[in-house]
Structures are given as structure tokens and as C-alpha cells.
Hints:
The chain is mostly helical. The protein has helices at residues 3-21, 26-34, 37-43, 55-66, 81-98, 102-108, 111-118, 126-133, 148-155, and strands spanning 138-140, 144-146, 170-173, 176-179.
Amino acid sequence: MRDIDWDICETQGNIYQLAAKEGYDMEVFSDVYLRSDFCGRYMDAVCSRFQIEDETVIWEFFFPELGGRLRKCAAGREYNGRKAYWIGYTYRQLAYSLGKRSRELADGIPFKRMDAAFGGCGGQTQDVIISGLMADGVLLEGGRKYFAGEYAELAGYPLPEFAAVDLACFIMEKGKYIRTGHVGCMS
């Protein structure tokens, strides 16, 4: 991915975090947002000013399209903003890495699956989480399955020579996977 792509991932993460802060049901928000005309036209575009715009400015543009389909959480049931950020960030990272549109990701990786993958959102990188999400394969594009090793290859990450190694044994640092000391890794 290009440097600007990482910035766009941050923008989408900020959009998700703002939705959580505003008290929206994140499952509904994510599904409606990823399938929206706004997301398809501007966030999935090769180049759009919205991709690096402030999330509050972006909100003003897409809220008229989404607003009527969103719902607020019950008091005291608000979603963790930090977790929402990483889920939004990871959806965009997958869109770039796999070359998929947001709508396809909403079909292939529903919010509940993404939410479960992030668990308590403690200590794992989004690349390890993506590896876990894709361990059983992610259905995209008419039943085509993508697996963790294929994700890394499509994303342009050089993998170790032995393909049997679980990607969770590696973390990404500056665009390259490096070995970690996780228990259960092959030596």
C-alpha cells in the first residue's frame, strides 16, 4: 500500500470512531456506510478529497444519505470508540489490499464477524486480526475465497519462505512482516 492509503485508512477509522462517539448502533452504521453511495463514490475512488478530509466534514456530506437508516444505541450501550476506529481502519485496509469495494467487504466480512475478531481490542495489530479473520477464508466476489497467505501476497507483504507458518507469528513493520515471539510459532 502507498503512504496515502494508510492515511485514508485513518480517515475511515476516524469516521467509525465519530459514529461510535455520537452513540450510533455500529453494526447498522457499518453496514449502511459500507453500502452507501457516498462510500462507493468517494472512499472507494482512486482519488477523492474526502479520503483525507476531517471526519466531521465528511459526516456533513454523507449523513443526509445515511441518517434515516441509522439508529442510536440505548443509553449506556454505546460502542467502544477505539474499537470502532480499528474496525473502520481495517475495512479500508482490506479494501486496498484485496482490491475490493466496500460493498463487497460488507458482504464478505459482516460487522459481527469483524467485531468478534477484534474482541477486547487489546494488544493485537490489525494485520494479526486480518490474518485471524481470513484463517477460514473470506468469501468475496461471487464465492471467491481469500485466505491469510493470499491476503499477504496481494497486499505485497513479503512472507517467510516456508508457507506453513501461521501469519499470526508475524507482525507488520514498515510494510514488511517480521517475526514475533508468539507462543506456538514455528521456528
